[in-house]
Design goal:
Blueprint lengths: L3 E4 L5 H12 L3 E6 L2 H11 L3 E5 L5 H10 L4 E6 L34 H26 L3 E10 L3 H4 L2 H21 L5 E7 L14 H9 L9 H11 L11 E4 L8
Parallel strand pairs: 1-2, 1-4, 2-3, 4-5, 5-6, 6-7
Helix pairs in contact: 1-8, 3-4, 4-6
Bound molecules: NADPH dihydro-nicotinamide-adenine-dinucleotide phosphate (NDP).
Length: 260
C-alpha cells in the first residue's frame, strides 16, 4: 500500500532528505514551505511522487488550506519546519558570524530591549513549536492508524540556546502529551533531535571553518552530521520496526551530547 507522507519545510536541508528517502520507498510525499520557487526546484529533483504546497506553518489560515489540499488519509507527518530565527536578525540584533561559539542564543537581543526580546522569543516559539502544534492539530483527523508523527527537535533543547533551545525543549514536552493522545489510535509521536548538521540553510551565511571544526570536535565519530543521518532516523521511526517506540526523543548527534 502506498503511504502518504507530509514533510513541512521539505524544500531544503533535513526536510528535503526526509522527503527524498520516503519518495525512494515509493511513498506519495507532500512537501511544504514558504518559498514556492524553492519547493518547485526541490520537486523537479525529487520526481513525480512528490507534490508541493506553499504553507507557512505558523499561519492558521494557510495550515487549514494545507489540510484541505491533502488526501483524506495521512500516514506520516514530519514536523520539520523551523530554525533559529535569531539568524535572520540584522547585525546587532543577533547578527554576525558564529565563530566557535554554541548553537544560537549567544547573541540575542540585549536584555534591556524588552520589545525586541519579546519579538525574538515569539518568533522562535511560533516557528519551532506552534508550527508543529498547529499542523498536527489541523491534520489530526487525517492521521491514519498505524501511522507516525515525527518532529525535528534539536540538541539545543538540552544544551541551552535562548529562545530557540527553549522552543525545542517545549517541543519535547508537548511530544509526550501528543503521544499519549495518539497512542490509543495506534499512532506514534517522537522527536528526532539532531546535533550539528552541515549542508542545510539553517545557519544562513554565519558559519565559518572555526565554527565547523569546533562542532565536529564535539562528536565521538569526528564528523559533522548530514541531512541523511536525520532522515534515516525519521524513516525508521515511521517503519513497522518502530511501532513500540513513542513519546521519545531520539538523539542523532555523533555523541556530541550523551544521554542516559
Ligand atoms: P533549513 O533552513 O535548510 O530548513 C528549514 C526548512 O523549513 C526550509 O525549507 C524552510 O523553507 C522551512 N521553513 C522554515 N520556517 C517555516 C515556516 N514557518 N513554514 C513552513 N516552512 C518553514 O535548515 P535545516 O534543514 O537544518 O532545519 C530543519 C530542522 O532541523 C529545523 O527544525 C531546525 O531547527 C532543525 N535542526 C537543524 C540543525 C542543524 O544543525 N542544521 C540542528 C538541530 C535542529 P522556507 O524558508 O521556504 O519556508
Amino acid at each position: 500500500m502506498t503511504r502518504t507522507v507530509v514533510v513541512t519545510g521539505g524544500g531544503t536541508g533535513i526536510g528535503y532528505a526526509v522527503a527524498s528517502m520516503f519518495a525512494a520507498e515509493g511513498a506519495r510525499v507532500y512537501i511544504t514551505g514558504r518559498r514556492e520557487s524553492v519547493l518547485s526546484e526541490a520537486r523537479s529533483r525529487l520526481g513525480d511522487g512528490v507534490s508541493t504546497i506553499v504553507c507557512d506553518a505558523t499561519d492558521p489560515d494557510q495550515i487549514e488550506a494545507l489540510r484541505d489540499g491533502l488526501p483524506a488519509t495521512v500516514d506520516v507527518l514530519v514536523n520539520n519546519a523551523g530554525g533559529n530565527r535569531e539568524f535572520d536578525a540584522p547585525p546587532g540584533g543577533g547578527g554576525g558570524p558564529l565563530g566557535a561559539v554554541g548553537l544560537g542564543g549567544q547573541a540575542g537581543p540585549k536584555p534591556d530591549d524588552l520589545r525586541a526580546m519579546a519579538a525574538g522569543w515569539r518568533s522562535n516559539l511560533e516557528g519551532n513549536l506552534l508550527s508543529a502544534v498547529l499542523t498536527t492539530a489541523a491534520l489530526d483527523k487525517q492521521l491514519a492508524p498505524g501511522g507516525a508523527v515525527v518532529h525535528i527537535g534539536s540538541f539545543a533543547a538540552d544544551r541551552g540556546a535562548g529562545s530557540y533551545g527553549a522552543a525545542k525543549a517545549a517541543m519535547n514536552s508537548w511530544n509526550i502529551f501528543l503521544a499519549r493522545q495518539l497512542g490509543p489510535r495506534d499512532i506514534t509521536s517522537n522527536v528526532v533531535a539532531p546535533g550539528y548538521i552541515a549542508d542545510t540553510e539553517f545557519f544562513r551565511d554565519r558559519t565559518n571553518q572555526q565554527f565547523h571544526d569546533a562542532r565536529v570536535a564535539e562528536t565521538m565519530n569526528g564528523r559533522a552530521g548530514y541531512p541523511e543521518d536525520i532522515a534515516g532516523a525519521v524513516v525508521f521511526l515511521a517503519s513497522p520496526a518502530a511501532r513500540h517506540i513513542t513519546a521519545q526523543v531520539i538523539n542523532v548527534n555523533g555523541g556530541a551530547l550523551t544521554t542516559r
